[in-house]
Amino acid sequence: MRSASGRFALFFTAVFAAAAAAAAVVLWWNTAGALDRQVEAAIRADATALIERRRTGGIDDLVSAIEDRLAVDVQNESLYLLLDPAGRRLAGNLSTWPSEASIELPWLRIPLQRDGTVSEARLLRVVLADGHRMLVGRDVAEKLRLRALLSEGIAWAAGASAALALLGAWLLRRALERRLSPVYRTAAAIGTGDMTRRVPLSGRGDEFDKLGVTMNAMLDRIARLMEGVRGVSDAIAHDLRTPIARARAKLEEALVSARDEEALRAALEQGIADLDAIARVFQAVLRIAEVEAGARRAAFAPTDLAPMLTDVAELYSAAAEAREQQLVAEIPPALPLVGDRDLLGQAVANLLDNALKFTPDGGTVRLEARLGEVALEIVVADDGPGMRDADRARAGERFFRADAARTTPGSGLGLSLVRAVAALHGGEVVLEDTHPGAERRGLTVRLRLPVAQGVTEA
User: Fold this and answer.
1) d(C-alpha 144, C-alpha 138), whole Å
2) In 76-199, which ranges are continuous DSSP H helix?
3) Are 96 and 116 in contact (CB under 8 A)?
4) Would you give the DSSP letter of residue 297?
5) Averaged over 214-234, what is the pLDDT?
6) Cα–Cα nearest to 353, from 405, 301, 426
7) How far is CA 336 from the centre of its chain?
8) Rounded to 5 degrees, what are φ and ψ at 216?
9) Of 405, 415, 354, whose CA–CA distance to 383 is shortest?
């Protein structure tokens, strides 16, 4: 009983027993109870007829009616006794007035001995208007035998039901343990460090399969997170080792070979800039972790992204003009959305920063926004070298940088933040070629965000 399966089995047994008891009560009411009601109805009808006979024909006619009834009683079940006001017996097959008949209750149930056997009599006491007294009843021995037979049958049925209930409870407990044992074994294996184990599915699609699917999805998620943690640790150790070593080398070189205070100050400023870049990387990692954990969901509010996109486009237009690039923005007047305006602005800024970084001088970067019935889409397209299909599959991993991006400044965290922001808003990030088939295919990033119910395109 300490196991959940045992308690489920006990509950099954209790329900089965309650159902069997209810069936027995209904059966008893419809058989033994019906027999009692039938006997009482027959006695009451007989007594009513005799009272009417007494009213219309007098006491002699009543005596004659009782004798006639006894004469035609083949089964010898009818019981009568008629006494005059002095207590003398006038008619009937009962010898004496029973002591139980002296009470006020009209119905009597007394033991009856006939032909050497003991049975039971069901009697109705009737007091006539002129002081005569009468008992009208039936010998219910046959009905008692039928009731005993019914009771015995119910007892045997109850025993069989109890046996079936216990058998069913045992089978239910075994079935539950058998279906849950793969979950136990998988959890035990995961507890020992084997993250490759998964809960096997039966293919029936029942509740246990749903539990298995949910657990497997959870384990896959845990495995991906652990792999991501290992990847982040390795990437931090690899990508930050070089700038830290470079900053240290520059500071050591300045300490040893600085010719004057001005050279030393320049070296220190360069070291501070390198350390600030490293701090920004850590800040970006922490921000991504915060977004992925859902901590920023409390900042969600109805907002209009059109002014934010316009401000970001104006900010990066200056950088595009400095490189003789063109930033084309197509933004509708209103883009209502429920979300975190600052995070979405940072995500769009990261996309524009990457697009301008990889677009050659004189190229074009496009920023577009569309509001549909179910989703708001922000598109950033560039004329850069594009991205291979294999690299797209890993794009968004922290610190991942494609081979074409190794020579450009950056930490490989920009697209990771964009994906984290999209996931926080229930959206997605889609990467496509801007110019399929061309030598410089370019890259188009589509940030799709679900809109609030009822928002339609302006």
Assistant:
1) 12
2) 141-191
3) no
4) G
5) 75
6) 405
7) 33
8) -65, -40
9) 354
Separation CA 356–CA 278 (nearest Å): 22
DSSP string, 93-111: S--S--GGGGSS-SEEEEE
Please give the pLDDT value at position 456: 38
3-state secondary structure of 134: strand
3-state DSSP assignment of residue 82? strand
The dihedral sign for the CA sequence 394, 395, 396, 400: positive
Question: Quick check: 427 and 449 in contact, CB under 8 A?
Answer: yes
Identity of the residue numbered 70: L
User: Kindly report the CA angle at 301 between 296 and 303, in degrees rounded to 5?
Assistant: 120
Return d(Cα 162, Cα 314) in angstroms, integer. Answer: 82
What does the alpha-carbon distance between residue 104 and residue 232 come to, in Å, rounded to a whole number? 96
**Is the separation of the CB atoms in 199 and 216 below 8 Å?**
yes
Q: Which CA distances in Å does 37 have to 31, 105, 110, 224, 309?
A: 10, 17, 17, 75, 88
**Spatial contact of 358 and 405, defined as CB atoms under 8 Å apart:** yes
Q: Is 141 helix (H, G, I), strand (E, B) or coil?
A: helix
Cα dihedral angle (369, 372, 377, 382), rounded to 10 degrees? -50
Amino acid letter, 452? A
The alpha helices in 241-358, defined as continuous H runs, are 241-257, 261-292, 305-322, 341-358
What are the residues whose beta carbons fall under 8 Å from the beta carbon of 113, sequence distance 6 or more?
Answer: 119
Taking only Cα atoms into account, the Rg of the chain, rounded to an integer number of angstroms, comes to 48
pTM beyond 0.85: the answer is no
Confidence of residue 118 (pLDDT cuts 50, 70, 90): confident
- Of 30-44, 86-100, 235-249, 306-320, minimum mean pLDDT range: 235-249
Look at 131 and 367; give whichever has higher pLDDT.
367
What is the rounded CA–CA span in Å between residue 446 and residue 428? 8
Please return the burial class of 65, using the count of CB atoms within 10 Å of its CB with bins 0-12, 13-18 and 19+: buried
Instruction: Determine the pLDDT at residue 293.
Output: 59
Structure tokens at 261: 């205070």
Question: In DSSP terms, which residues pair with 303 in a beta bridge?
Answer: 337
Contacts of 151 (CB under 8 A, 6+ apart): 32
Residue (of 62, 84, 82, 72) closest to 137 by Cα position: 82
Helical (H) or strand (E) element with 375: strand 375-381
Q: How far apart are the first and last CA of the chain?
A: 63
Angle at which helix 241-257 crosses helix 207-239, to 10 degrees, equals 20
DSSP at 454: T
DSSP class of 451: P
Whether the CA torsion 192, 196, 197, 198 is positive or negative: it is positive
Distance CA 234, CA 237 (A): 5
